Amino acid sequence: MSVTLKSPPSSFLSSSLPKSRLRFANGSSSSTLLFKFNRSFPVLGASSGSSSSVDTGLSTELDAVSTFSEIVPDTVIFDDFEKFPPTAATVSSSLLLGILSLPDTIFRNAVDMALADSTCSPLDNPELRLSCFVNKALVNVGGDLAKLVPGRVSTEVDARLAYDTHGIIRRVHDLLRLYDEIAVPPERLLFKIPSTWQGIEASRLLESEGIQTHLTFVYSFAQAAAAAQAGASVIQIFVGRVRDWARNHSGDPEIEAAIQRGEDPGLALVTKAYNYIHKYGHKSKLMAAAVRNKQDIFSLLGVDYIIAPLKVLQSLKESITSPDEKYSYVRRLSPQSAARYDFTAEELTKWDQLSLASAMGPASVELLAAGLDGYVNQAKRVEELLDKIWPPPNV
């Protein structure tokens, strides 16, 4: 995914942030900043009604699909607020890597201030000192993003803690304390946690404290259902990654069952997870990521959030609808259709560590491991770069 950060108008930035430009590329969704369209694109919101088609007066395909789901782009351009006014954001190791790749970026001051922090610098243990710097950098950048966006800022939790429930909770509490020091309230925050069993259990405990969590790397129904039972605020499923695995592998029962029904396995997973959440009254919002084309979006209409590539959104915006066009814009996912969906007794289990491990097929196991490896590598690269530039010249 290619991401471009440019300086927005000065009214959107604190005075301490210099105007500059940052460009970097990577394949991780963790660097995504979430935007809701306005003006050039319509304000997008999930529809709660049961209507199956939209008003034929709507002029573009983007108008049509945005009446059913909140559509967010997978690319951000800060200086084009007319086209992409931001509502929420994600701060991650991937984003820190982008900030560190150039000496003059709009968030570089936030990182330099982290390296000058008086609580981190005196630590004798190099690993603890670097971890302290990373936490401060994430929060400083997250604080600046909170000034730019009216919605929530999702902060990535170190993937090396993915199998340590109490480690995740301690890290989230540390991040919350740092956010409190810069006056960012908890209701503005999400914490992005991998959907291992330990991550799901950490989500349950954090949500019980009123701390909002965002569970990612969901590649199986068991993970999605366990995350919903935990009360996660947001559950993120990567549609295209499931499809890619299915094209190149075999032997996953859940995927093969979907294919035998004539369904795309990634789309089928989102549909099943949505129906489970709504049929049984879970509070979680469902986010479909890694969609690859317009047909994916058409097939997911009604899901809470769809993250889509900019080229797909531009195509939707440029495609004019007409009353006699062949494609009918139909809400595919709704609470009403969820109520009619039948689940097996095995799918309605109260998920625990053993049942989750037994139900996760090779696709979810392999994709989760690959995602964690990517996040861990990014975190290590951030620490290596911070170690090279510490102490900064003014310290």
UniProtKB/TrEMBL annotation:
<dbReference type="GO" id="GO:0004801">
    <property type="term" value="F:transaldolase activity"/>
</dbReference>
<dbReference type="GO" id="GO:0005975">
    <property type="term" value="P:carbohydrate metabolic process"/>
</dbReference>
<dbReference type="Pfam" id="PF00923">
    <property type="entry name" value="TAL_FSA"/>
</dbReference>
<dbReference type="InterPro" id="IPR001585">
    <property type="entry name" value="TAL/FSA"/>
</dbReference>
<keyword id="KW-0963">Cytoplasm</keyword>
<dbReference type="InterPro" id="IPR013785">
    <property type="entry name" value="Aldolase_TIM"/>
</dbReference>
<comment type="pathway">
    <text>Carbohydrate degradation; pentose phosphate pathway; D-glyceraldehyde 3-phosphate and beta-D-fructose 6-phosphate from D-ribose 5-phosphate and D-xylulose 5-phosphate (non-oxidative stage): step 2/3.</text>
</comment>
<dbReference type="GO" id="GO:0006098">
    <property type="term" value="P:pentose-phosphate shunt"/>
</dbReference>
<dbReference type="GO" id="GO:0005737">
    <property type="term" value="C:cytoplasm"/>
</dbReference>
<comment type="similarity">
    <text>Belongs to the transaldolase family. Type 1 subfamily.</text>
</comment>
<keyword id="KW-0570">Pentose shunt</keyword>
<protein>
    <recommendedName>
        <fullName>transaldolase</fullName>
        <ecNumber>2.2.1.2</ecNumber>
    </recommendedName>
</protein>
<dbReference type="InterPro" id="IPR004730">
    <property type="entry name" value="Transaldolase_1"/>
</dbReference>
<keyword id="KW-0704">Schiff base</keyword>
